[in-house]
Amino acid sequence: MNFADTERRRGLYDATAPLPRILGSEAAGVVDQVGESVDSRWVGKRVVALAQQSYAELATTSVDELLELPKHVSFEEAAGLLVQGLTAWHLLFTSAQVQRGHRVLIHAAAGGVGLLAIQLAKTLGAVVLGTVSNTDKAALAREAGADVVFVYGGSASVSDWVKQVTGSSGVELVLDSVGASTWANSLESLAPFGHLVVYGNANGPPPAFEVEALYAKSLKGRKKEKPPSREATRASQKESGSDLLSHAVSRGVPSALEGLTSVFGMGTGVTPPTLPPENRRQCIRRVSCSILRVQASLCF
């Protein structure tokens, strides 16, 4: 299951939503019905979608939340890709705009977003440093492409390790989904003009800090911002999601449970390809409702 799903079960996400409620935010399946003004050719297509209340046999979503699946991508893989894949994509391509040669420190490197971020960062030519909690997770991070991995439990701090690995230069980017326990080390690990993106708080929210703490290295910190408009978000997700699936088209995907990250095993190309316009439909319509028969609504 997606980490966000477990947080909702604990009442930490959408805590004010009325009960009882149906969980689920992404699904893969076959389009069963469409609304009156929606292209009827969607019916019968294999798709992945951002779909609320998707822990069900049938789920309803807007047609502009659908992406058509390549034949060789399974429902299980697709359902495990979208939210975590889009998160990793936007962290690297939108928030930070990673360039070849940049050093990127990824906390929780063996998690869903972490493994995807490692592989996407490597396609951009970045040097990837990861942190994990045990040796088994370290092996996963290295398999995904991390250049060096820090395993918690020793006497050294993450920031001291980063200084050693980078020759005291630091990293251009830190991706931090942990929060409270990693905040200080994340700041300390940054190079001058470095960029810290906090996109989760699995260990609790980062502590309050003085802005002056950023001055010494001219650092940039980013936490939660005002969300973009729904229309802008949908357009961005549609574009990025099509690019994510085009990776699967170009590479092929082995059996579903061999790991979602296989979708991103792309080699060293800098900019991933996009689906041609005729396959990346512009689906903004007056009645944008579709019903898909859910085949998978799980995240790895």
Description:
The protein has 300 residues and is an alpha/beta fold. Helices cover 29% and strands 20% of the residues. It contains eight helices and eleven strands. Helix 5 (135-144) links the parallel strand 6 and strand 7. Helix 3 packs across helix 8 (230-251) and helix 6 (158-166) packs parallel to helix 7. The protein is elongated and about 60 Å long. It starts with a helix and ends with a strand. Mean pLDDT is 75; it is low at 246-290 and 294-300.
Briefly summarize what is shown.
Helices cover about 30% and strands about 20% of the residues. It is of the alpha/beta class.
What keywords describe this structure?
disordered C terminus; alpha/beta; six-stranded parallel sheet; 11 strands; 29% helix; 300 residues; 8 helices
Layout of secondary structure:
Elements: H1 3-9, E1 26-34, E2 46-50, E3 58-61, E4 66-68, H2 75-79, H3 82-95, E5 103-106, H4 112-123, E6 127-132, H5 135-144, E7 148-151, H6 158-166, E8 171-176, H7 183-189, E9 190-198, E10 220-222, H8 230-251, E11 290-296
Parallel strand pairs: 5-6, 5-8, 6-7, 8-9, 9-10
Antiparallel strand pairs: 1-2, 1-11, 2-4, 3-11
